[in-house]
Specification:
The structure is a single chain. The protein has helices at 7-23, 35-50, 69-81, 90-103, 106-118, 232-245, 251-268, 276-303, 312-334, 354-361, 371-382, and strands at 123-126, 142-146, 149-156, 167-173, 184-190, 196-201, 210-221, 225-226. It has 388 residues and is an alpha+beta fold. The chain folds into 3 domains: 7-88, no CATH class; 123-230, Butyryl-CoA Dehydrogenase, subunit A, domain 2 (Beta Barrel), CATH 2.40.110.10; 249-382, Up-down Bundle (Butyryl-CoA Dehydrogenase, subunit A, domain 3), CATH 1.20.140. α1 (7-23) packs parallel to α3 and α7 packs antiparallel against α8 (276-303). It is globular, with a radius of gyration of 21 Å. The protein starts with 6 loop residues before the first helix and ends in a 6-residue tail after the last helix.
Length: 388
């Protein structure tokens, strides 16, 4: 496959590159898993929004640029090339935003999307529960309708960005007599609502990237329900398609990591005793490029009227295991010193952010649906194999 860009696409790339050169902060922002870093990243989201770069595929009326998916991939390539800050509102702009575009009413789009694009409102994802992680159909938290409101009780766990976010989108059981995939609804909850308790969960690096959320007779208007009552499972599967298949992890993320890995290899090649590390570097670089080409193919198919189906599970397995391989290889190149935290006395610049990336990469095969579950989906829905 050979990628050939049109003059218009090349002009768009040049525009993106220049804007990023003029606006990307000179110094890295603090981690968005700290209060100060979260607010720094919120300000960056607002900077993006002022240039209508918050989510370029959205209509201009909602703060976007009306770009197609190929232009979005070009934007992402330039974004990661410029080493711009990570997107703290990714749950909103990459997952909820496209779902709102598809299932939301005009009033809901007007209420939520522009504030999402501007960084004014940050979003967390609230699907997993104790006993209902990868098996989301086992959700037990309830939202019982009383007039024009839902009364919510229950618990969510492993809610990404929930410690500092403003809103969370959740799946609740609105039919108490239902089971499994039926009777679930997709509902938005403000995290400052009366009866909501948020408890931080520390990651491997000690920072609160996740949270437990407890709902104790929390009341939200029926307006906050996305789609029809009881259709939450189907809507969530659409969101999961964005999460696993295209939007959440653009190929540029892995291409940039692979390029940095190659640079690290060139610095350390004379110290390598295990020659299999060289093979791993080459494999990481090739796989990152292969993933990019595959994503361009998917984007082209979608632009021609196609859709993302169960093959999104293949994508999710591939990019999560690629991420883990890239950072594991980097740790091997750095040796025992790779375990030093940046603030350690003997730490040096060559350690970069490899340890932080390595720790985060451990979660890749788990979040967005565990890879074990994705392999089941592939076996049953793509290969037609029987259930065990």
């Amino acid at each position: 496959m050979e990628l050939v860009y049109t003059p218009q696409q090349n002009a768009f790339r040049a525009e993106v590159r220049q804007w990023l050169a003029d606006n990307v902060p000179d110094q890295p922002l603090q981690s968005f898993d700290t209060r100060e870093g979260f607010e720094q990243h919120r300000q960056w989201e607002q900077t993006l929004a002022r240039g209508n770069w918050g989510m370029v595929t959205w209509p201009e009326a909602y703060g976007g640029r009306g770009c197609n998916l190929i232009e979005w991939l070009i934007f992402e390539e330039e974004y990661y090339r410029a080493q711009a800050p990570l997107r703290v509102n990714q749950n909103g702009i990459f997952l909820l935003g496209p779902t709102l575009m598809e299932y939301g009413s005009d009033a809901q789009k007007a209420r939520f999307i522009s504030k999402m694009a501007s960084g004014e409102e940050m979003w967390a994802q609230g699907w997993s529960e104790p006993g209902a992680g990868s098996d989301m159909a086992a959700i037990r938290s309830k939202a019982i309708r009383e007039g024009d409101e839902y009364v919510i009780n229950g618990q969510k766990i492993w809610s990404t960005r929930a410690v500092f976010a403003d809103w969370v989108f959740c799946i609740f059981r609105t039919d108490p007599d239902s089971s499994r995939h039926k009777g679930l609804s997709f509902i938005f909850v403000p995290l400052d609502a009366e009866g909501v308790t948020v408890r931080p969960i520390e990651q491997l690096n000690g920072l609160p990237g996740f949270a437990e959320i407890f709902f104790d007779n929390v009341r939200v208007p029926v307006f906050n329900r996305l789609g029809a009552e009881g259709e939450g499972w189907n809507i969530a599967m659409s969101t999961a398609g964005f999460e696993r298949g295209l939007m959440l992890r653009s190929p540029a993320r892995f291409q940039q990591s692979a390029k940095l890995l190659l640079q690290l290899y060139r610095q350390k090649r004379n110290d390598i005793l295990d020659l299999s590390i060289e093979d791993s570097v080459v494999r990481c670089y090739m796989d990152a490029e292969a993933y990019a080409l595959s994503t361009y193919q998917t984007a082209s198919r979608l632009m021609s009227g196609g859709s993302i189906g169960p093959e999104s599970s293949c994508n999710k397995i591939f990019w999560s295991e690629l991420d883990l391989q890239i950072f594991t290889t980097a740790m091997s190149l750095l040796g025992a010193r790779a375990e030093l935290l940046p603030e350690a006395e003997d730490a040096s610049d060559d350690l970069g952010n490899w340890l932080d990336g390595f720790l985060f990469a451990q979660s890749g095969p788990i979040y967005a649906g565990t890879n074990e579950i994705q392999r089941n989906i592939i076996a049953e829905r793509m290969l037609g194999m029987p259930r065990k």
